[in-house]
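Exercise 7.
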Amino acid sequence: MVVADSQMYPMFYRAIATESAIELDLEALLDQPYLTQGSPGIGGVAKSVPQDFIVEEIPLYELSGEGEHVWIKIRKTALDAQSLADLVAEKTGVTRHEVGFAGLKDKSAVTTQWFSVHHHTLDPQSLIGPWGESVEVLEATRHTNKLKVGHLVGNRFTLTIRHVDPERIDDGAKIIETIRASGVPNYFGPQRFGSGRRTFWQGWNAITKGQLAPHLRKNKRLRSLSLSAVQSAVFNYIVAQRIAGGTFTSALVGDILEKAEGGLARVDAENQAEWSDAVARGLATPTGPMMASRMLRATDEVADMESRAVALFGLDEAMFERRRGDLRGERRPLSVRVEDLTYDAVQEDVVRVGFSLPSGSYATVLLRELMKNDHYNGPSTESLPAHA
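Solution. The predicted structure, written as tokens, is:
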């Protein structure tokens, strides 16, 4: 049977046994080994208050000041992106469909991001100022196109960790040096899979059995999130296997590398030494699969590893082919370089970390490596550390 039959899953979310009766132990499959396993973490608690998690988008391009779309730079506190998009629609008098944004942002945070609305006559300057206690418009101008998901270079983070063990702050500095040299695993964070892994199970049922929950049939965005959660789970497993096997920063025969200068490269027996040197110098990064029927495939030993991962999740190529209209395949770097990385002790038991990550990478992955406890995504239901 499939390990998902629980009262917390309504019928449309429950994973039902496949014909092959594969047992899917999702908790084990999603286990994430640390890259810095040999270094103790600093402990502590992240996101104690929204001001401890500050995020600012890094735009993909400059705005022209002209065009049919009004772009609005907004700083919000403790508000989710979907609710803010609804507020933007209300304030500007457009439909929700006419509101664009580049990416979702954490609710328990202070975030600065751009939104766009399609509006011919709206005066951008009239929007600047407070929109209540938790929302403020910082800038507004015009541009030629709608802002779409992914239209950003990345995000700049300023994160504060409280209740740190003072005796372990120096251990954190060593972890930061490793991350500065090697990057961090490009894991998808746990929020990708939903509360109780519900988002994953919705997507898994859709891919393996063709069973779409009613709300996924009607909502393309939610359907995409559910299906991509399955892709993300397979990718995370590949990353974990490469870390556990000591090949996370190696170029293996069959690898597809993403070059720092742009583009992809294949590794074979003849060029392996050359590409291994490039990976060690940060000039290229091995990639893993975001599985779909149309995706560049690895070869040799890497292809075997990826095929085993797909099978362990009860998936096969034919299942992805059936959902080719919904799934876009791509190669995702196994690791991500962390830019502008800073680490400072601001009080005896408080540290502040600053860094930039490219779009699609998770700040909480870095916090997890640094803290090595269950509070990297905010205070958990467990009691806080004794010195909290």
